[in-house]
Amino acid sequence: MKLFVSVDMEGIWGVSSWEFMKSDEARELLHKEINLFLDAVESVEPDAYVLMVDSHSYGENIIRSRLKTNLKLDLISGYPRPNYMMTGIDETFTGTVFLGYHTHAGGWGAMDHSYSSAAIYRVAINGTEVGETTINGLLSHYYGVPVLLVSGTEELRGEVQQNLSEAVFHATNRSWSRFAAQSMHQALGELRETTERALRRPRPVVTKPGRVVITIDFVNRLAADVVEEFLYALDGKRLGPRTIEFTMEDYAKAFHLFQGIVFAASSAVRLQR
């Protein structure tokens, strides 16, 4: 078994806000949840290989020495890097796992955002509003790799069921506002069981995404002004002061382009004066 594991932080059990995320306690909770997951993987397949990607912020949250496992495990940290939250994904993996994930910008989950809370207001693929879970999951599908497990805020469940229906969903927190969350008492205790169930199922078959139309609404016009330069080399267009849209036949190329747009738009925020 070869697993690709992307770890975000907003959906980690007990985490409620970006301010709290700076604390030692939040880091402790992050490693506790990861280690529970790894223990479950080891119980299913002691010889499994895990490629883990630190996918929150600048990718400097997971401390390798605090990962307690006998599994063969590689950790990707740091930023920038190709494909960001999905660095290293390819067709050789048995399955993909998302830990600590959250709802899209404008969703009901705590700390809702889509890649950049400062720059991006909304992302839609083929007319459907999506967040990081779907955007990343479709790249996994591109390589024929099913998403086996998604763990995160309860409000993310609907998006997973709609767009990554092959995945088992595990809820860690329930949101009360954008910066208030209820960590459910049974969530960590049930993570091992849910992980084992997800890994022991027959491997689901997924469909490779085809032609995609990606629409991005930015928080303000400046980001769109900067990103518009990309559109001259693409089959893209500016739909309005804050909105761009582009169409691509190859999802992997679309994903790379999207990452570049996010990087440029986030950098543009710093130009405001």
Compact summary:
The protein is an alpha/beta fold. The protein has 7 helices and 12 strands.
Kindly describe this structure.
This protein folds into two domains: about 1-115 and about 130-200, Rossmann fold (3-Layer(aba) Sandwich), CATH 3.40.50.10780; about 210-270, no CATH class. It is built from seven helices and twelve strands. It has helices spanning about 20, 25-45, 130-140, 155-165, 185-200, 220-230, 250-270, and strands at about 1-5, 50-55, 70-75, 95-100, 120-125, 130, 145-155, 170-175, 180-185, 210-220, 235-240, 245-250. It has a seven-stranded mixed β-sheet. Strands 6-5-10-12-11 form a five-stranded antiparallel β-sheet, with helices on one face. The longest helix has 21 residues, at about 25-45. The mean pLDDT is about 95.
Search tags:
273 residues; alpha/beta; Rossmann fold; 2 domains; 7-stranded mixed β-sheet; 5-stranded antiparallel β-sheet; 12 strands
CATH architecture of the largest domain, by name, is 3-Layer(aba) Sandwich
Order of helices and strands: EHHEEEEEHEHEEHEHEEH
Number of DSSP strands? 12
Shape: globular
Helix content: 25-40%
Using only CA atoms, what is the Rg?
A: 18 Å
CATH superfamily of the largest domain: Dipeptide transport protein
> What topology, given as strand order, has the largest sheet?
3-2-1-4-7-8-9
Number of domains: 2
Q: What structural class is derived from the secondary structure elements?
A: alpha/beta
Strand fraction band? Answer: 25-35%
| Terminal CA distance | 51 Å
Sheet of most strands: 7 strands, mixed
Query: At the first level of CATH, what is the class of the largest domain?
Result: Alpha Beta
Low-confidence stretches: none
Total of DSSP H or I helical runs spanning 4+ residues: 7
The pLDDT mean sits at 95
Q: How is the CATH topology of the largest domain named? A: Rossmann fold
